[in-house]
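Example record used in the benchmark description.
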Amino acid sequence: MKKKITFLINLVSPLLPILAILIFNKIGQALPVIVLSGIILIVILYSIVALIRVKEKSPEIKVVGTIMGIVGVFITAIVLFVSVSALTKI
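Model output (structure tokens):
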């Protein structure tokens, strides 16, 4: 059960910043995107910690989770860059 939850967290976490960009770019607010990015980063860090605990049992979850985690970090960095540039334009 724990493995499935960790796997789902790793699968969904990279997609959340994309949703945040789409939602908040329509509204035109940058601050909620920064806050959401912080939350997403915490989720990614949590999933990496959960992954370290699981890694001895199943290597394939480790590989997929690591890839998803890296993608999530990159997307979060892009979201932060976009939101900071949006803040400087205001």
